[in-house]
Amino acid sequence: MNKPLPVTSAIDAPGLLLAHEREVDPNAMFIPLVVRMKLDLSGTRISLSDWQVFPRDRRMSLIRTASKKETVLFNSTLTSMLRDAGSNIRSAKKVEPAIAAQWLDTSEPESVQRFRKLARVETDWRSLSYFARFVLCYAMKKGDIEFCRKAIQDLSRPTAS
């Protein structure tokens, strides 16, 4: 197995939610993938019900923070949100950060390559952002070929400046 890149390098998540996430969940009631990625990097787990305790504006603030490079800022924002929610939060847990996660590998893992081929998604692993790699691995974990196709297509679109 290839040596994973340092966690501090895995910070290039795009500033936008996936189109699919925006369409099916405009109020961010489900934890978006960019936030899931940062939770993995920071070694924090929260439940869906805990996420939903946060007011919409706080959820959107955390999404924006997760879209930025600084994992330290994300951790600080999340800690503040958890503190402000107080007794409403039931299960924020510290776990090992995802240092050995497949999406951090410098070359495409065989399991991801097989899934990508099954989904008929052509892409170069090395040219993908860490967020795109995370999304591809998430789709594989879920076994969701259609989501994989849509997400990679969405991530392949040029962003408006």
Task: Provide structural commentary.
The chain is mainly α. It has 2 domains: 15-94, no CATH class; 105-156, no CATH class. It is built from 8 helices and 2 strands; from the N terminus they run H-H-E-H-H-H-E-H-H-H. It has helices at residues 19-24, 33-42, 48-53, 56-66, 71-85, 110-118, 130-142, 145-156, and strands at 44-45, 93-94. The chain has a two-stranded antiparallel ribbon with strand order 1-2. Helix 4 packs antiparallel against helix 5 (71-85).
Residue ranges: pLDDT <50 for 5 or more in a row? 1-14
How much is the average pLDDT? Answer: 79
The number of distinct structural domains comes to 2
Distance between the termini: 37 Å
Assembly state here?
single chain
Shape: globular
**Structural Rg:** 16 Å
Structural class: mainly alpha
Helix and strand run: HHEHHHEHHH
Overall helicity: 40-55%
How many helical stretches? 8
Q: What fraction of the residues are assigned to beta strands by DSSP?
A: under 5%
DSSP strand tally: 2
Q: State the strand order across the main sheet.
A: 1-2
> How would a crystallographer describe the biggest sheet?
2 strands, antiparallel
Summarize the entry for a quick read.
The protein is mainly alpha-helical and about 160 residues long. It has helices spanning about 20-25, 35-40, 50-55, 55-65, 70-85, 110-120, 130-140, 145-155; strands at about 45, 95.
SSE diagram, text form:
Blueprint: H1 19-24, H2 33-42, E1 44-45, H3 48-53, H4 56-66, H5 71-85, E2 93-94, H6 110-118, H7 130-142, H8 145-156
